Hints:
The structure holds two protein chains of two kinds.
Chain A lengths: L1 H4 L14 E12 L2 E12 L3 E5 L6 H8 L7 E6 L2 E2 L5 H6 L2 E4 L11 H7 L7 H14 L1 H5 L10 H13 L5 E5 L7 H16 L3 E5 L3 H7 L2 E6 L2 E6 L1 H6 L1 H6 L5
Parallel strand pairs in A: 3-8, 3-9, 6-7, 7-8
Antiparallel strand pairs in A: 1-2, 1-4, 4-5, 9-10
Chain B lengths: L1 H31 L6 H19 L7 H20 L6 H24 L14 E4 L2 E4 H23 L1 H11 L1 H6 L4 H26 L7 H15 L4 H21 L5 H15 L14
Antiparallel strand pairs in B: 1-2
Amino acid sequence: MPCAAIPLFSMPTWGPDVGVLLELKGLVAGYGAGDILLGIDLAVDEESLTCIVGPNGAGKSTVLRVISGLLRPTRGSVRFRGESIAALSPRSILNRGIVHVPQERSLFPTMTVWENVRLGAYTVRDRGLVERRLAAVAETFPVVKERRHELAASLSGGQQKIVEFARAMMLDPLLLILDEPSMGLDPKTRTTVFNTIRTMNDAGHTVLLVEQNARSGLGIASHGVVMESGRIRLEGTGPDVLGNPEIGRLYLGAA
Amino acid sequence: MTLVLEAAVLGILTGGVYALMASGLTLIFGVMRIINVGHGALVILGAYLSFVLWRNLSIDPFVSLVVTMPVMFVLGVILQVVFIRPLKTDREALSVLVTYSIALGIEGLLGYFFSSNYLQITAWYDTASFPIGDFRITYVYIYGFLLCLAILGAIFLMLYRTTFGGAIRATMLNRTAAQLVGIDVDRVSAIAFGIGMATAAAGGVVFGITNTFNPGSHYDLISRLLTIIVLGGLGSLRGAIIAALVMLVIEDITAVVISPVWASFVFFVILVAVLLVRPQGLFGLRVRERL
């Protein structure tokens, strides 16, 4: 993947002592009315593809919003590469290499695809680097090149999601957090989206994925996490979690 | 027929200044999702600032903008940081109260220093006019219109040709997404409020030359500006400009064809008719659900 061909940071290789990239400890957070997260402990390994599944209202999106700085935690710590980031602004967190693709559509609808992708590198001051990244991203995500002059709003839901990924890759993120990227997509488009996520992960980007569609999400995950009512209920490798009969009955809607 | 034509031309010329004032208001709404009820009072404040510079220092009212626009920009940034930024919850409703307080504060201060007597800024070229067909147009209306056109042009260039303008548009379109690409939306908000105030300063000069004003003039002004941005669609600059021209032209033509009494009424009938068909206004942003 060309994005990885112009790395900002050196990528560690797989091994038994793969480092922890992101660590949440005793995380409690919520909005005005009350706490949604009731003590989350989670470690995301470097280069892993971690997938959080769980029923609606479990607090999955809230975890991501805390990590990217959109929501301040009430208690607990968020450490990224050993540094506490819980009190930082979204912009500072972005600058440390964490990019958040939210659940709802997040392209700027009346801007062109090209303008949208370029804004992904809003915080990058080196113009030459921005141009090189643009070229690389256009190569990796053909839809960006083909539809570059069209308004983002004119793209299909699946195409918009891919362009959101492309915009996120403009920062060559260390950690990509994706909130329910398959929501509202037809099965074929969903497959494309999951393949794209796997490609980005293969290129060395650590991915933290929240998915309502647990089978697809855990299917590509190296690490699976099940959340319920603001707590983590189960963790394991993706296939292990997917194969757990109890989990299947509770969260995946299996017969 | 000449009367109608004259009314239309005058409507367009005076519409220009309303377009400028409404643009500032709709920009502030677009970026912060707040209704700045104090906008009219800030326009009147701009008129008083230029009035003082003209009366005490004999500075030409148009030239005085070199001073008043930066001053009002800074004031706008301060107002945003002190009064608007602290509103974290229920900001749509609270901002109306807060900005109304700002309006009352400004009205009170102006009343204290200037009394409630009506004033008007006059320039030496004030009465000069030139003929178009059967009627004459005062130069000062042309100058005011051209000034507004130039400032609006500068705002559009800034929005569509600069990186920071792109950040403003992104914040208007989707605040959360803007934060997620690293745009400092607090900074964008403060600067947008400053820009809104600078346009209020320019609008104030033109308003103060073409109208008499006193500290209470903002009530009438803000009601007209709010009507304009609702017709144009909240958050749409194009909408604000077109709606301002439509409003003033309709009012002026109604005034000569029917009667001045019906001028505003006819406009409101059209406003209601448009809103029945397009509740979001002519060019309104679709209001997004918040997270």
